[in-house]
Amino acid sequence: MTGTYRKKPIAVQARQLTADSYRDLINALTHEQFVAAGETADGSVFLEIRTLEGQLRASEGDWIIWGTHGDVWPVRGDIFTETYEPAVPLPAGFRSEQLVAVKCAACEYEYDEDESYTCYFNSVEQATTCVRDAGWTALQDGRVLCPADDEDHAELRRNVGTATAS
Q: Can you give the pTM of this predicted structure?
């Protein structure tokens, strides 16, 4: 199915390869994951690890990541910083939920059932059903349009097309 997708946020365990963490990282890798380790001519450390993509080298400053299925891989330090952020654990008794608010694709008006505050929904499907019932239009690309009838709204209906009710 063609569409726009966002990668799910998945927490992973990671540790940066440094001269201080070098031995602990070797011990943390399984026999199948660990290939080799050593020191380069300039004195920096490295690890060779077996990943799902084959054998890869981690240099000092890189990060070693353990995935949710037991797989392991290295990530360059600068890429790690751009791609990952610390996962903040929730306090005991709290749980994480994703809520959905709805904005019109043309005018960014936020759906507000009783005009007192923004409505939040537990799922995209629930939000789509509710705004459709309120006269909003679902577009083929998943966005929605409020009932306003101006050129911006009409253009999106023409160019993107409306979705069929499910």
A: 0.54
pLDDT tens track for 29-74: 999 999 999 999 999 999 999 999 999 999 999 999 998 888 999 9
Mapping DSSP onto H, E and C, the string for 133-147 reads HCCCEEECCCCEECC
DSSP 92: T
Q: Are 105 and 143 in contact (CB under 8 A)?
A: yes
Other beta carbons within 10 angstroms of residue 51's beta carbon come to 15
pLDDT band at 12 (very low <50, low <70, confident <90, very high): confident
d(CA 16, CA 35): 18
Q: Are strands 63-66 and 54-59 parallel, antiparallel or unpaired?
A: unpaired
Residues 6+ apart with CB under 8 A from 153: 104, 106, 107, 145, 146
Dist CA 19 CA 61 (whole Å): 9
Residue 157 pLDDT class (50, 70, 90 cuts): confident
Distance CA 116, CA 118 (A): 7
